[in-house]
Amino acid sequence: MCARNNLYLDWVVIIWVYILDPNIGIINNILDALGASGLKQKWIGGEFWSPYSIAIIYFWQQLGYLVTIFIAGLKMIPNDVLEAVKIDGATGLQEVRYVIIPMMKSTISTVAVLIITGVFKIFEIVFVILNFKLKWSCNYSGYILIFSVITNL
Fold it and tell me: Which residue among 44, 52, 86, 90 has the highest number of C-beta atoms inside a 10 angstrom radius?
């Protein structure tokens, strides 16, 4: 299972590398085709856009999983409670604020913990990207240090 997840991670990151690559990336090629070459950026490898690109990759990778958890949490709210709130005359905003959010506290806290622990794994994304772009101008030496420590234990 772990190997399958790592393979999935690698393919997600590789696809995003081909979208964001400064030389052969889809985004810069579209900008060229539209005649907006002045808007081309170093999405990966530049000092400004690289952290944002990594954040977008991480967000895309985690989105489906976290939304699935939220949908499961919403389905766990009993219909009787929601029906009673509507009968009592609560507005949609009151229903969300006073019923749905309090009943989803455990789901929200679970998702928050998954996001926080997932941020510690973000160096995997950076490491896979670094295999493609070894000459980054931005400083990710901390990630390389972490990887070196983990692999040399």
Answer: 44
